[in-house]
Structures are given as structure tokens and as C-alpha cells.
Specification:
The protein has a two-stranded antiparallel sheet. The protein is built from 18 helices and 2 strands. α13 crosses α14. It is mainly α and 477 residues long. The relative contact order is 0.20. It starts with 22 loop residues before the first helix and ends in an 8-residue tail after the last strand.
Length: 477
């Protein structure tokens, strides 16, 4: 098959997308995507908004159930439409180009912002190991964060296998760190010391907006449960591995998160929990003083592993959007040697470097979560439509239709709740992202406007990066 894009002469035949991710790689992608720095650094957003330890623990468990519910539905979605790109392809197949473009556009801007915050968190924690209490200045932290971003980008550009091995290594390290915290808390409880858990439901919030914000914080920490769908064309035996990876990962993370928070509360007083800049470090000071130096290293490793996965996933999303003709064509090209979407990866890395500017992480969480719940709700409708259209298609997992309906109601509540009171600034920012996407969609997608000289840029990048168009999805075995 020859490259017939834009009438240009081909450099090489189309490059196939190879299936090189197995069960353990799949689990490491989901677990590694979910467990970042949040559970170590400051899970206090759930406690602040819930008001009590008891309600806080319930919300953590509920967030796990919501994630499990969504993950099982997405497993069936992935089997109905077995293509890389996840949500993008589901929206494209059911509703057409506009919602698919809007989803990709929002992720295209937000994921680099999250990566920038993650790299700055890593730099901050790692600096506490190699510098004194005064720490480095802000410029050094930014430069270190940029170096981290670039290094993870290089790993993802070299090969899928190297990236997968990096995922697995850092997933093992971060889970080991959390197990250390869990064991310390269980020892405390076995001694009959329950810390702030004895306060129970004292001070619980009944405000729907506050509860929604608590779920936003919890679900942000659970974020990533659907990421395996974005690389489905690279997963070996998806009919078996996708459901198995999803069930294994979500169960593991929900148990770990619940036990880690119980450990935090069994050791730390409520006020200390709320005032801590990094809950895991404060916990170590109380429980295992010798681990105070170890915890920042574990957090840095956790952030690095999650950052590597973030670039792996986000590059596949822009790749899928470009392959569908909604993003610049060059982003859909694969390196002829490594089969990696190098142009997409480099662009995401560049945007992340640009966005390494300190920001209010609470605002970022709310913006990302708000947009996430909008598109998750739309995808639940897409799932129900697909189930009707493809009712004769047999899959290894079949979800009762009541489950996506329940998740749709949850999404509606979480999108509407922030507007029940005076609207916070970040939600206007989120709406601004959506409006800007509409403005760009009209000329570039609806009317197919092409920038002058874009073919020359594509040809130059193709030669520079040694890339070629990818094999079409229906040609992937």
C-alpha cells in the first residue's frame, strides 16, 4: 500500500501498528497512570470538602466504585471498537467529527498541563533529597522539570518496549512505597491506636457542591483507569487482556488507596493532615522517621513513571485524531524503525516544556475534572447507542445497560453541581477551552482550511523524523 496523502510521493509503504503490550504491561499502564504523586503528596482535597474523616473514607471508596464502573464499561467499548484513541474513536463513530474533535482538543491542551505539574512536583521532591532545607531557586526547579520531561519523551520515542519496561519498573517502586505506608498504619491499628479515625463523621458536609468537589479531588487521583483503551491497537490479545487488565488494576488500586488513607488517618491528627504540604512525608515523621528521606524518592519515582505513561498515552490520542483527519497529518505518522508516533510524542513534550509554569493545582484539578465528566457522560450515551447498533456483536464482557445509565446520572450531577453556587473562576476557564475548540473546528475541520505551506512542513518533518503513515485500523491484525 502506498502513501497517497495529499498527492505526495511516498517515502515508504505504510507502517503497521504492532501488538507488543502484554498483560503485565497493560496492568502497569493502568496502575501507573492512576497512582501518581497525588496519593503521596496531598489527598487532603477530599477531606477539606467532605468535612469529616468518615465521609472522606467513604468518598475514596465511592471513587473506586465509580472508576470500576467506568472501567468495565470502557472495556466493552474497547472490544466493540478495538482502535487506539479511546474516547475519541467512540465519539467519532457515534456522533461524528465535532464531539470527537472537541474531546481531542481539550485533551491536547490539558494533558501537557498535567504533565508540567507532575514534572514540577517531581523536581520539588527530588530537590529535598539533594539540597538543604532552603532548596534550589525556582529557575533550577523549572530546568530540572524540563529535563525530566525531555528524558521521558526520549524514552517514549526510542521504543514501545523500553517505555513499557519503564512503566513496569516505576509501577513496582510506587506500589512498594504505598505498601510500606499501609503496613505502618496496620501496625498502628493492631496496637489499638486509631488516630483521627476516632472522630468518625464529625463535621461531615451536606453541601452538594462541596461533595462534588470532594469527588473531583478523589477521581482526579483515580484518573487513568481508561488509558489502556488509548493504546488498544498495541495490546496483545485485547479480547482477553483488556477486561483482565482493567479488573485487576482497578481492584488493586481501590484496595491500596483505601488502606493508604486509613493508614494516614490512623497516624495523623486531622489538623495535621490538613496543614501538611505532603501527607506521606508527615506520616513518615510520625511513624517511621528513617523513611523521611525515602518517601520523597518514592514520590519522585512515582511521578516519573506516571509522566512516562502520560506521554505514551497522550501521543496516541493525538495520533488517532490526526489519522482521522482532525489534527495535522504529520501527527499520524509512525517511525519506520520503532513504530512509535514520534511527531505526536515530540509535540506533546514541547507543549509540556512550555507549560512548566507554576499553577494552582486545585484549579487544574477542577478544570480537568469538569471537562472529563462532560465527555464521560457523552461517552455513556455513545455506549448505549453502540450497544443498540452492535447488539449482534459478541464480546468477552457484556455490561448491563443500567450501569452506564447510573454513571451518566453521576456525570450530570458532577457537571451541574459547580453551578449551584457562585461559579469558581476555573470553571469559566474550562468553558473557555471548549469555546476556543469550536472556533478552531469551524475553519480547519468543517471547511477543511489548510495553512499555506503545510505540505512542505509535513514533507520536511517526514524526512527529519524518518516517519511514514500508519496502517489503517481495519488492516491491523
Amino acid at each position: 500500500m502506498e502513501n497517497d496523502h495529499s498527492g505526495k510521493e511516498p517515502y515508504i509503504d505504510t507502517v503497521p501498528v504492532k501488538r507488543r503490550l502484554g498483560f503485565f504491561s497493560g496492568v502497569s499502564i493502568i496502575v501507573g497512570s492512576i497512582i501518581g504523586s497525588g496519593i503521596f503528596v496531598s489527598p487532603k482535597g477530599v477531606l477539606v470538602n467532605s468535612g469529616s474523616v468518615g465521609l472522606c473514607l467513604i468518598i475514596w471508596f465511592v471513587c473506586g466504585l465509580i472508576s470500576a464502573l467506568g472501567a468495565v464499561i470502557y472495556a466493552e467499548l474497547g472490544l466493540l471498537i478495538p482502535r487506539s484513541g479511546g474516547d475519541f474513536n467512540y465519539l467519532l463513530n457515534v456522533f461524528g467529527t465535532f464531539p470527537a474533535f472537541m474531546f481531542a482538543w481539550c485533551q491536547f491542551l490539558i494533558m501537557p498541563s498535567s504533565s508540567a505539574v507532575l514534572s514540577l512536583t517531581l523536581a520539588e521532591y527530588f530537590s529535598k533529597v539533594i539540597f538543604d532545607d532552603c532548596g534550589p531557586n525556582n529557575m533550577i526547579l523549572k530546568l530540572f522539570a524540563c529535563a525530566v520531561i525531555i528524558s521521558t519523551g526520549i524514552i517514549n520515542c526510542i521504543s514501545v518496549k523500553l517505555s513499557a519496561r519503564t512503566h513496569i519498573l516505576f509501577t513496582v517502586l510506587k506500589v512498594a512505597g504505598l505498601l510500606m505506608i499501609i503496613i505502618g498504619g496496620l501496625i498502628k491499628i493492631l496496637k489499638g491506636e486509631f488516630g483521627s479515625m476516632s472522630s468518625g463523621f464529625e463535621g461531615s458536609s451536606t453541601n452538594p457542591t462541596s461533595i462534588a468537589m470532594a469527588i473531583y479531588s478523589g477521581m482526579f487521583t483515580y484518573g487513568g483507569w481508561h488509558n489502556l483503551n488509548h493504546v488498544l491497537e498495541e495490546l496483545d490479545n485485547p479480547k482477553r487482556n483488556l477486561p483482565l487488565c482493567v479488573i485487576t488494576s482497578i481492584t488493586l488500586v481501590t484496595v491500596i488507596y483505601s488502606l493508604v488513607n486509613i493508614s494516614y488517618f490512623s497516624v495523623l491528627p486531622k489538623d495535621e493532615f490538613l496543614s501538611s504540604w505532603a501527607v506521606a512525608v508527615t506520616w513518615a515523621k510520625y511513624e517511621i522517621s528513617s523513611a523521611v528521606v525515602v518517601i520523597p524518592i518514592i514520590v519522585a519515582c512515582s511521578s516519573y513513571g506516571t509522566l512516562t505513561i502520560a506521554f505514551f498515552i497522550s501521543s496516541r490520542l493525538s495520533f488517532a485524531a490526526a489519522r482521522a483527519g482532525l489534527f495535522p497529518e504529520i501527527l499520524s505518522y509512525l517511525n519506520v524503525n520503532s513504530n512509535v508516533p514520534v511527531p505526536s510524542t515530540i509535540l506533546i513534550v514541547m507543549l509540556s516544556v512550555v507549560m512548566t509554569i507554576p499553577a494552582d493545582i486545585g484549579m487544574i484539578i477542577n478544570v480537568i475534572s469538569f471537562i472529563f465528566w462532560i465527555f464521560l457522560g457523552v461517552n455513556m450515551v455513545a455506549f448505549m447507542v453502540l450497544r443498540y447498533k452492535m447488539k449482534d456483536v459478541k464480546t468477552s464482557i457484556k455490561v448491563p445497560l443500567i450501569l452506564p445509565f447510573i454513571l451518566l446520572l453521576i456525570c450530570i450531577f458532577l457537571v451541574v453541581a459547580p453551578f449551584l453556587e457562585p461559579v469558581r473562576t476555573e470553571f469559566w476557564y474550562a468553558l473557555g477551552y471548549l469555546v476556543l475548540g469550536v472556533v478552531l473546528y469551524i475553519p480547519f475541520v468543517l471547511f477543511h482550511f489548510r495553512l499555506p505551506g503545510i505540505d512542505g512542513v509535513t514533507k520536511f518533518c517526514q524526512s527529519l523524523m524518518i516517519v511514514a503513515p500508519a496502517t489503517k485500523p481495519d488492516e491491523i491484525s
